[in-house]
Amino acid sequence: MFQIIVLQTTPSEGFGGGMMLPMLAILVVFYLFMVLPQNRKRKKEKKFIAELKKGSKVVTSSGIHGKLLQINDTEGTVTIETSAGKIKFERAAISVELSKKYAAPVKK
After folding, report:
1. Quick one: DSSP state of residue 104?
2. What dotted CATH number matches 54-108?
3. Confidence bin at 76 (pLDDT 50/70/90)
4. For the segment 2-58, what is each residue's pLDDT rounded down to a tens digit?
5. Under DSSP, is residue 80 helix (H, G, I), strand (E, B) or coil?
6. What residues are paired with 60 via a beta bridge?
7. Radius of gyration in angstroms for the set of CA atoms belonging to the chain, rounded to a whole number
């Protein structure tokens, strides 16, 4: 009464390569515009943090301005002197962009 019809299909030969090229292009664009700039920024931040020395003017990511008094490499902390007193912070809390603006000479 019922008949089952089985159709066999063969994949077209160009199907796999045609789909791979746009996906590869998307991955390359993603890498160039997202990953590379982020890696460059991370390297600059690490270099800036490593080059900090006593007496440097810095700004933390929370906006606290001060001068470095002490750098503790074993704990990864710094002590900053502000107008309110001395405060201990993690080294990672120092904002690279804000510190560079703060330490730059004022143009008249």
Report:
1. S
2. 2.30.30
3. confident
4. 677 666 655 555 555 677 888 899 999 999 999 999 999 999 988 988 888 898 899
5. strand
6. 94
7. 28
